[in-house]
C-alpha cells in the first residue's frame, strides 16, 4: 500500500530532521497570525454576510420552501469549504518560499545527496519573487477551478464530481513544488499525476476534509508538501 508507506515516511522525516521540522512550523506560525487578526472577521462577518445573500436569492427565486431550505444548507456548506480553502491558499502563498525549500530538502534527503544549507538558502532567496509569482498564478487557477466545482455543487447529483475535482486540485497544488523545480511541461505534469492517480486523489480527498477544520488545516500544509514530494521522488527512484 503506497499511500500508507508514504504517510509513515512523511512522519519519519518530520521526526528525524530538525530543519524539516523547523520549516514545517512556518505555515503554522503564519496561519496563527492570520487567524488572530482576521479569523473572527472571516468566519463571522464575511461568512454571515454571504450566507444571508445566498439565502435571500434562493427564497426570491424559489417557490418551494423545502427545496430552498435544502439548497441553502448545501450552499452554506460549500461556502464554508470555499472560505476555509481560500484561507489555506493564502497561508500557502505566504509560506510558498519555505514550502519550496522544504520540498527540495525532502528530495535531497531522499536521494542522500550532499546538502549545503548555505547554497540552498541563497538559491531560495534568489528565486523568492519567482516562487511567489508562480504561486500567485497557481492560486488564481485553483480558485477559478474551485468556482467551477462550487457551481457543480449546486446540482446535488454532481456534488461527488465537485468534491473529486476539488481533491485533485488540492493534490496538484502540493505536487507543483516538485513539478516547478524540475520544469515539467503540462503534458508531463498530467502524466505524472496519472501515474499515481489513486494515491494523489485519495490524499487530496483527505485534505479536502481536513482543510475545513480550523488549526488542523494549518498543520497539514507542510505534511502535504512532504507527502507529495515523496510521491514524486519515489517514482523517480523507480526509473
Query: Given the helix and strand composition, which structural class is it?
Result: mainly alpha
Q: Compute the gyration radius: what is it? A: 19 Å
Number of strands: 0
Count the helices. How many?
8
Order of helices and strands: HHHHHHHH
Average residue pLDDT: 77
TL;DR?
The protein is mainly alpha-helical and 239 residues long.
Q: What keywords describe this structure?
A:
239 residues, mainly alpha
Report on the architecture of this protein:
The protein has 239 residues and is an all-alpha fold. It has one domain (2-234). It has helices at 2-16, 18-61, 65-110, 117-152, 159-181, 186-195, 197-210, 216-238. The longest helix is centred in the middle third of the chain and has 46 residues, at 65-110. The radius of gyration is 19 Å and the shape is globular.
How is the topology of this model organized?
Blueprint: H1 2-16, H2 18-61, H3 65-110, H4 117-152, H5 159-181, H6 186-195, H7 197-210, H8 216-238
Helix pairs in contact: 1-2, 1-8, 2-3, 2-8, 3-4, 3-8, 4-5, 5-7, 5-8, 7-8
Amino acid at each position: 500500500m503506497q499511500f500508507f508507506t508514504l504517510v509513515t515516511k512523511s512522519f519519519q522525516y518530520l521526526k528525524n530532521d530538525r530543519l524539516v521540522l523547523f520549516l514545517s512550523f512556518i505555515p503554522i506560525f503564519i496561519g496563527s497570525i492570520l487567524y488572530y487578526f482576521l479569523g473572527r472577521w472571516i468566519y463571522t462577518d464575511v461568512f454571515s454576510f454571504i450566507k444571508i445573500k445566498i439565502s435571500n436569492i434562493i427564497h426570491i427565486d424559489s417557490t418551494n420552501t423545502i427545496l430552498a431550505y435544502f439548497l441553502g444548507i448545501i450552499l452554506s456548506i460549500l461556502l464554508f469549504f470555499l472560505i476555509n480553502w481560500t484561507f489555506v491558499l493564502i497561508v500557502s502563498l505566504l509560506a510558498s518560499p519555505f514550502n519550496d525549500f522544504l520540498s527540495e530538502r525532502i528530495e535531497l534527503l531522499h536521494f542522500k545527496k550532499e546538502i549545503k544549507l548555505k547554497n540552498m538558502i541563497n538559491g531560495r532567496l534568489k528565486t523568492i519573487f519567482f516562487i511567489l509569482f508562480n504561486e500567485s498564478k497557481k492560486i488564481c487557477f485553483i480558485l477559478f477551478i474551485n468556482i467551477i466545482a462550487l457551481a457543480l455543487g449546486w446540482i446535488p447529483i454532481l456534488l461527488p464530481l465537485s468534491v473529486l475535482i476539488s481533491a485533485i486540485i488540492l493534490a496538484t497544488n502540493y505536487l507543483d513544488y516538485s513539478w516547478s523545480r524540475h520544469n515539467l511541461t503540462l503534458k508531463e505534469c498530467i502524466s505524472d499525476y496519472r501515474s499515481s492517480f489513486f494515491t494523489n486523489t485519495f490524499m487530496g480527498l483527505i485534505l479536502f476534509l481536513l482543510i475545513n477544520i480550523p488549526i488542523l488545516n494549518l498543520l497539514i500544509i507542510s505534511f502535504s508538501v512532504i507527502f507529495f514530494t515523496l510521491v514524486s521522488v519515489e517514482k523517480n527512484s523507480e526509473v
